[in-house]
Design a protein that fits this description.
about 325 residues; alpha+beta; 2 domains; 5-stranded antiparallel beta sheet; rod-shaped
């Protein structure tokens, strides 16, 4: 019995020693320098560092993109992109001014279709022959050889609304077929446009003459030919930089003549939903620089949208301005 007890005690001691060794090894594997807990803490720290670095890189990339591609595109590529965007903007504006609404963001195919739409538009059958403009109360042209009938468009602007007539040995007969005007009385900006049908004497002189109070005046006229008679549809005139009218029902195509006067020679164009396609046929102007009396007249052939609005807009320095327009067949 004593021997058996001794063996048991030795086994117990050995077992305890083995357990202590195993516990030490396990503890070292768990919390030591290479232990599971230590490695887990290091892994978590590495993940946090990686996330921070990733956020830093993403922020840096975003800033580079915001700064027009610095660090993504070189200078030559950035310059090429800017030139392309500017080119598309210029093309879109040019197409839109011809009456087909176009945006810089439109595809190349859309822009090509819009250009084709303009190109297929024949522009009517008005033939400009000769024109002249002068910063004076009268202005003259010579009737070319071979021209025996046609139309005279005459325009005059003055401080007060002028009267306007045509005369001369170049006219055999005349008939006034249209007249429209615009007035800004407070600033002394007034103009009138008249259209006459005439039979001519070849190589004779035709003179447009205006009469008005004040001394800031200019006069112009143009001879053009058109096979059919002119039929006036509608007109409008205001003492402002913009004049608008509504396209009447039944008016799908026709001519639009517009006029503007200002202290300096104005730029003039037409726009609006009422114009589907437009072709500028001709323009003429008159200037009196010393007195700030300038006007411009433009004639367009248009495809219209019935019931929609057309606006004639002018740009010029100074503030004595008036704008007018008329649709005719």
């Amino acid at each position: 019995m004593k021997r058996n007890s001794g063996v048991t005690m030795i086994s117990l001691v050995v077992t305890i020693i083995v357990l202590i060794i195993l516990a030490g090894v396990s503890l070292n594997m768990t919390v030591g320098d290479n232990g599971i807990i230590t490695q887990a803490q290091k892994a978590r720290e590495n993940i946090e560092l990686a996330q921070t670095e990733e956020e830093h890189q993403l922020n840096q990339l975003y800033e580079e993109m915001q700064n027009s591609g610095d660090g993504i595109f070189d200078d030559s590529e950035i310059d090429a992109i800017e030139k392309l965007e500017n080119f598309k903007k210029i093309i879109a504006e040019a197409i839109t001014k011809k009456g087909v609404a176009t945006e810089p963001t439109d595809t190349a195919e859309t822009m090509a279709e819009n250009i084709a739409q303009i190109s297929s538009f024949n522009g009517g059958n008005i033939t400009p022959v000769v024109s002249n403009g002068a910063g004076a109360t009268s202005c003259s042209i010579t009737v070319p050889t071979g021209i025996t009938q046609g139309y005279i468009v005459a325009c005059a602007n003055a401080f007060y609304m002028p009267t306007l007539t045509i005369s001369g040995n170049g006219i055999d007969t005349q008939k006034e077929v249209a007249s429209f005007s615009a007035s800004q009385a407070s600033m002394g900006a007034n103009h009138i446009v008249k259209i006459f049908y005439c039979t001519f004497v070849e190589e004779g002189i035709v003179t447009a003459t205006m009469a008005a109070g004040g001394n800031n005046y200019a006069t112009s006229l143009m001879l053009f030919q058109k096979p059919e008679e002119i039929e006036v549809v509608t007109s409008a005139g205001v003492g402002s930089t913009t004049c608008s009218l509504t396209v009447p029902e039944g008016t799908q195509e026709g001519y639009l003549i517009t006029c503007a006067n200002a202290f300096y020679l104005p730029d003039l164009y037409i726009t609006g939903e009422g114009v589907e396609v437009q072709t500028e046929i001709t323009s003429f102007n008159a200037q009196q620089g010393s007195m700030g009396a300038h006007h411009i007249v433009k004639i367009y052939y248009c495809k219209f949208r019935e019931g929609k609005t057309i606006s004639a807009k002018m740009y010029a320095s100074g503030n004595n301005y008036a704008t007018s327009m008329m649709i005719f067949h």
